[in-house]
Amino acid sequence: xxxxxxxxxxxxxxxxxxxxxxxxxxxxxxxxxxxxxxxxxxxxxxxxxxxxxxxxxxxxxxxxxxxxxxxxxxxxxxxxxxxxxxxxxxxxxxxxxxxxxxxxxxxxxxxxxxxxxxxxxxxxxxxxxxxxxxxxxxxxxxxxxxxxxxxxxxxxxxxxxxxxxxxxxxxxxxxxxxxxxxxxxxxxxxxxxxxxxxxxxxxxxxxxxxxxxxxxxxxxxxxxxxxxxxxxxxxxxxxxxxxxxxxxxxxxxxxxxxxxxxxxxxxxxxxxxxxxxxxxxxxxxxxxxxxxxxxxxxxxxxxxxxxxxxxxxxxxxxxxx
Length: 321
Hints:
Distance between the termini: 48 Å
Strand order of the largest sheet: 1-2
Shape: globular
Number of helices: 16
Structural class: mainly alpha
Strand content: under 5%
Radius of gyration: 19 Å
């Protein structure tokens, strides 16, 4: 597989709240993860240990689970306890690294300490992309462009279709040249199209061009180039936008990967796009599949209460408004 075009830096809880205070659970629909996280919060790390052993080398699921398990502030202490019992455990080391990344992003730990922890995890599991994903999460906010390109390449060489890593890169690429306005040739669109084309037919990266479209809207609306209300924006009505959204929706109808750990992330982006496009019937089908698993992005774009925006869109699409 050819190397990716050079994407630059950075890009985007246990429970992350919108401005309304409504919780969004980053565990999504992973009930085993939710149970293990609850046990870990009480200092019982055996459930997290068993969960990660069962996850094996399902790299997307492993990354998702470790990032979520590392979010609570108490996770670092319990990961350290685990390491006292099993000093050479790659899983405990990686959990401590993820907790360190979240702490550094929250200003509670030095970024260099978190990076060192990630490198220690990488030494114990050289084939695992998760230590590099964790560093990519950190570098998106605190790293240089060169660091982010390097980290993304390290993830891809271990798992070329890594879902979370591609979403991070799209979010950051969209932020380039914010003052340029609408540009159908913007690099974020090229990158997303390239990644979707390189992936196998059943890969959820097929939805990446829709994600790129939403992330670019976020940037343009924040810069004042698009209306703050996505429904009054022409961003979803152009020919290119319609083609992108039709291709992604057709992929969902034929290939939807219900077993993918970040499936609900894609469905939220796709439902948002279809709703903004004015395709209520298609949006309704997606809202049925999303169920209770709303995500802050893209409903918060550019500066909305995500819970209110999701509920309003869902009610309108389902005819219950």
